[in-house]
Amino acid sequence: MKQLIQAAMMGWLMVTLLPLGALGFQQGDPAPDILVENIDGEPFRLYEQQGDAFLLNLGATWCPGCMGQSIQINKIHDYLAENNIGYIEVFHQDTEEAVREVLANPDHLAVPEAILDDGQVRKSYNVFMIPRILILDRDFQVVYDGGPLRAPELIEYLQLARDEVAAEGVN
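Structure for Thioredoxin domain-containing protein, as requested:
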């Protein structure tokens, strides 16, 4: 009986978890361009953004893990500013009121671009879990796509994205 339960659990894990990896992006994949409105109704196009790297934080105000990820990003605020790294926060299945309340919180990092997703980002990026972090290099190539990262890990991946930019300049 114990072996049957173990086999069933292993089968369930394979069926449910393995496909999740297939939905994300691999390192080096181009990130899809998006043209949406930011929280203030102004047009936002990813590929028009300037920076040496980009941090996309996909989450929701009602998600405790997402708010925890925001705390980690707050810890690297100075690093983002000092290293010309764009920061975009995309809120899924949220209301404008809830997003504005979070953004008004003095403990929340000032977000240059806050997007209230109308479903376009979810579809373009195959959002299957939140929180989800994407780190992109200057050319919008994926360096990292996955779950939450602590502040030191965020810096590590952002540095990798910036190093790729620096390496391009050497050639």
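Confidence is low (pLDDT under 50) at residues 7-22.
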